[in-house]
Structures
1.
Amino acid sequence: MATDTASDAGTTTTNEPLHIDGADQLDDVVNKYDLVLTDFYADWCGPCQMLEPVVETLAAETDAAVAKVDVDANQQLAQSYGVRGVPTLILFAGGEQVEEVVGVKGEDDLRALIESYAE
């Protein structure tokens, strides 16, 4: 099974979620793309599984790169961003954290949030 990583992604945007393994890789993605929607999730989390197709659609159809961070495999990274529950979505714009959404949100709401920072 092939997965995209920050090292093989395009420079403008990516059409599939990037699976992040560690703070350095997330920093690289945030610095590489203007907009990054980061999905902090867990495989055992039902709401995270419900959000998965929405996140994949946003990766394919918006200007934002989508990063996925497994909180079980990256506990320190999740703690460093204050993630206390999953799913937590953090939006970065221009390398800075600009929004945080906890819980499941609809595709339209998330798309509007991304587009409010797209320029």
Note: The domain at 23-97 is CATH 3.40.30.10 (Glutaredoxin).
2.
Amino acid sequence: MTVTLDGLTEADAPRCAELERILFPGDGPWPASAFVSELRARHNHYVAARADGVLVGYAGLAGLGSARDPENEVHTIGVDPAQQGRGIGRLLLDDLLAAADARGGPVWLEVRTDNEAAIGLYRSAGFELMGLRKRYYRPSGADAYTMKRPPTGSEQSGRDLAGEEA
């Protein structure tokens, strides 16, 4: 099986919503309309992982702050449970981090405290635990860790996620 990455499109929104319901059933999974809204926001970067043309994963990053003081936030990463453990999450995260590095600034995210696989992935990518958000996820009430990856030396400050001057 070959996995390729490309841009997430509005046509992918229903499949993303389907995966959200499977992956995050007690944590307010995003509907298709939320993905469409995110894809229309200029400051966001969303990527799709496809295996034989089928969407098997997705990830999104928001560019925040100004060009002089940029920050980035991972909004979501999801991989079809049947495809987990094959490195797809790593490919998606690497794509988001490359976009963040091109823009500059640190990268923030929240992750459920009981999601050991995701926490391990984020730690291996340079994220550090910054704090705990009690009852962050709704409606489950699950806690989340806030994690941060400091800016890298290869960043290019002053660029937006599309590579244009901000």
Note: Residues 88-103 form the longest helix (16 residues).
3.
Amino acid sequence: MHRYPFTSSIWRQHDTGTLYPPLTASESSEIVVIGAGIAGLVCAYELQKRGKQVTLLEALEIGHGTTGHTTAKCSVQHGTIYQKLIRHFDETTARLYYEFNSEALVYLKNQIDEGFDCDYSVEDSYLYSTEPNEELSKELDAYRRLKLDGGEATNEAGDALPFQIEQALVIRNQAQFHPVKYLRELANRFVGLGGKIYEQTRAFEVSQGPRPIVTTSTGRRVQANQVVITTHYPFNDLRGLYVSKFLVERSYIVACETDATPLKGMYLSVDRVSRSYRTYEENGRTFLLVGGEGHTAGQVTDTRNRYDRLESDAQHHFKTMRATYRWSSQDLITLDSLPYVGQMFKREPDILLATGFLKWGMTNGIAAGNLLADQLTGRPNRFSELVSPLRKTVKPSGVGPFVKTNLDTATQFAKGAVDRVLERRDVEDLQLDEGGIVQVDNQTKGVYRDLDNHCHVVNLTCTHLGCTVKWNNAERTWDCPCHGSRFDAKGAVLEGPATKPLPYKKREDL
């Protein structure tokens, strides 16, 4: 029996979509899009509709990445973002960010009207606090200044939630949906228009110069006029110093079945310990989705207790059953809280990217995909400067996060060498379904002992920039605390920026 349930996303449980082949021969295309998440598929679909010939490369499978591991809220209410943008920039920038995401909601609604089937529903979105919160009061003032469709909603949220709250704000007529079903709709229609999708095809390198060449991990190549990188964390992050521009955060979600009336609306707390709530109905069953427990990626080993706290919260407040599904998600947060969408490098107009969605990839991703499609087909788009990756971001208010992010990376790099010594154990001490840093043949290695008592041995050095990976006991993965790369128990890359696996051996004699 499992000592602890393996993680699985509710969105991926019944995915019976098409399995696309890997790329087995080099070819050329007008445009290559790398990454079949929400931004990549929207971009590829729109480009193909507009007459471009597009090839889409996915390292794993459609829905396997960040889009398939979210709470799938489609909202312009991104925490207390608007008062922060007004403070860091001005009201014009804050309003533009609102409209950038609002247009994504309109785009999604139009697709629903066209027949997209993805369990879409219109919901109001609420921010709340259980104690006095100055940020929430400032956000209410920002709503008024920006003339958003919403405002104070303390009594409304208090009536819906089964615990006492102090204050709440609402934005009306937002949405929630099934993200993997949405990706499948995009993929099917994209292929129906003549687009090509290759799964299990990891991009390894993009050449410089005109007509860039994408080289895959198996040595196959695709040459194109333009390349779009929508891989969540850009795998070619060293050029342009993107490696220094992100905070990578991991958060957790449980889906607990309940007999109660489905929760109307979507809820997010702004308390010190944050919680996200929404419900999802499937085949007559109602699930409460509870999210939270975020931390910097790769810097927590005992992740099981994160799920346990969410499950306990659901049972205590909402009287749910035990969690049926557990999964986690990784998010990139930029230094100024705006996404990077557009030309990636100053002197290379043919390489574009979309990333840094601040945990709100459903609307930001759709908006990014449309913006990239406009830029690649010569259509004007008023949001280009707002989210340009080449913008000047380091203002006085942005210096602190920049310094903190890079000091933390340096600290984790140095700490890894110490952890290899302090956390090292004897391999005999590993229980079934347990991983850790151990001594193997007089060398320090990472070892996972599976349920069949086989030991899987990996090198602990991340193949991205050499940090020491840490064991994640709920996901059964090796996670990098510096830039968020993730590897499975056999060293295969699950999430970038790393593109190479950890060296691996299976040992029957340990």
Note: The two ends are 21 Å apart (CA to CA).
4.
Amino acid sequence: MFGLFSKLFSNKHLIIILFSLIILVIVMGLTLNHRELTWPEKFLKDTISLTQGILYKPASKIAGFFEDINNYTLTYKENKSLKKILHQYSQVVAELNQLRDENKRLKEMLDYKEKAVNQYQLKVGQVIARSPDRWNNMLIIDQGSNDGIKKDMAVITTQGLIGKVYSVSSFSSTVQLVSSSTDGGFIFAAIQSEPMTYGVVEGYDKKRNELQIKKIDLDAVIEPGQLVTTSNLGGVFPSGIVIGKVVRVEEGENGGLTKTAYVQPAADLYHINEVYIVMKTNVQSINSGTVQESEETPSKEVK
């Protein structure tokens, strides 16, 4: 092949012909706008245009094909990068919302503890377990006997009462919720009517989220909206812890000799993350000008 090209270019006549064609094309370009083309020039121009037209379309399609592939590759890489950034952003937003909610809860607990310091001595507990099949009955917190926790201590949130300590181990405790249906009657309630009305929390309507306060005197004047708090009559809880508000009142059991009040719990019994255990009740009494503190002594559970 190389020998063939060497032989061709060694031919002086061929070199002269090629050089002449180049000169002819240059001259045609310079004189194109100043005269009519001769038929050889027209033939040469048409041949070149036809050749360019034949070669241009396939070449442009091939170039466009490779350009499309390149654009597709760039788009794929960009899309993959954007998905990764979006996933990271969603994760950051979720963590931010979680931290915001936790910060809000902790701030509410701190404010509540500062306000309740004259009434109760409280210990913070974290919920560490809750069984789905007993969601309305029990939960487990990370405070136990080594932390001073005792059976029957009241357990509250910043909103109100949620239950009592049911059992205690060294490093954790089981809390029985007020919505528990396995062991009702351990909460004595005081309805803030005039005069004060007392009853016992015995039952929970899961669909309506209502506690049932039974054994209320038939002559008691109770109205919706009245506040319900704990009573120390049962010897289990201190007085004054908010339970909820009366929603409605109906005739009770025992042949209509008592009333039953339905109470909307003040505390959210479904979403519970942090709790307070009431360690002591600060009872202020005037005795020779001094304030005395008495520790709440739990009694046996009232059935």
Note: The chain is about 35% helix and 30% strand.
